Amino acid sequence: DAGVTQSPTHLIKTRGQHVTLRCSPISGHKSVSWYQQVLGQGPQFIFQYYEKEERGRGNFPDRFSARQFPNYSSELNVNALLLGDSALYLCASLQFAGGTEAFFGQGTRLTVV
Amino acid sequence: GENVEQHPSTLSVQEGDSAVIKCTYSDSASNYFPWYKQELGKGPQLIIDIRSNVGEKKDQRIAVTLNKTAKHFSLHITETQPEDSAVYFCAARQASYDKVIFGPGTSLSVIP
User: Fold this and answer.
1) pLDDT tens for residues B48-96?
2) Cis ω before A70 (30° cut-off from 0)
3) CB-nearest partner of B89 from A42, A45, A107
4) CB–CB of A99/B32 below 8 Å?
5) DSSP string, A40-65
6) What is the rounded distance in angstroms from the CA atom of residue B86 to the CA atom of residue A6?
7) CA–CA separation, A32 vs A38, rounded Å?
C-alpha cells in the first residue's frame, strides 16, 4: 500500500503569491491533518479535516485555508505569501478522527523569496 | 496553553550506549503520547506511542515511560546504533481531538 503522498516535494514562490499544496492519505484513511515545520522546530498544527469537514484549526492567520475532497485527498492553500511562511509543510493521515495514530508524508518544502 | 517541553536539545552517545530523552506536557487532558523520528529530508516517522492508562511500553530496543501525575514521559533507546542518529520528537494529544502538540526535538548522534 502507498503511504501518505504529498506534492510537490519542493516549491519556490515569491512574496505575495499564493500556493496550493496537495496530500493523498493512506488508502482507507478518512482524516487528514496539516502541519507547518519551521527549520529547527517541531511541527505546528494548522488544520484537521475528517469526512470533508474541518475538525480543528491551529493558531494560523486566515491566509491559510484547506479543504478535503470526496476521495479524502486534501489541499492546503496559502495566500499572500510572506518570507516567514518558508517551511516544510507536512500532511498526516489518520484512519478516522479521534484516538488513532497519525502517519506523516515526506512533506513539501516551501521557500518564499 | 498547550505546551510540550523536551530535553536535551542535542545528545551524543557512543554506539552501544543508551540514550534517554525526557518530555513534560502541560495539558492534563492529554492521554496519548507518540514519539516520532525524523531523518534529514523526510517526514516524521512514528516509532512508538503510549496511552495514559499504561505506565510503560517496550518495543525491542525502544521503551517509553509515562508518569501522568507528574506529566512526564521519556524515551529510552538501548544498544544504540549509528542508524538511530536522527531528530526525535515527543508529542502529546487528546484522544478525542487529533491536534498533536510536538516538543522542540532532540538531535541524537550515535558515534561509531
Assistant:
1) 999 888 899 999 999 999 999 999 999 999 999 999 999 999 999 876 6
2) no
3) A42
4) yes
5) TS--EEEEEEETTEEEEE-S--TTEE
6) 22
7) 20
Dist. CA A65–CA A81, nearest whole Å: 13
d(Cα B62, Cα B84) in Å, to the nearest integer? Answer: 11
CA of B92 vs chain A CAs: smallest distance (Å):
12
User: CA A13, CA A19: separation in Å to the nearest integer?
Assistant: 8
Whether residues A42 and B105 touch (CB distance < 8 A) is answered with: yes
Cell numbers linked to B28: 492534563
Say what the pLDDT of residue A100 is.
Answer: 72
Distance CA B31, CA B3 (A): 14
Q: Is A68 exposed, middle or buried (0-12, 13-18, 19+ CB in 10 A)?
A: buried
Q: Decide if B43 and A104 are in contact by the 8 Å CB cutoff.
A: yes
Distance CA B10, CA B7 (A): 8
pLDDT digits (tens, 9 = 90+) for B17-36: 999 999 999 988 888 999 99
Smallest CA–CA distance, residue B24 to chain A, in Å, is 15
Closest chain A CA to residue B102: A42
Phi, psi (5° rounding) for residue B71? 60, 45
Relative to beta strand A10-13, strand A31-37 is unpaired
CA distance B44 to B47: 9
Residue range A6-35, pLDDT digits in tens = 999 999 999 999 999 999 999 999 999 999
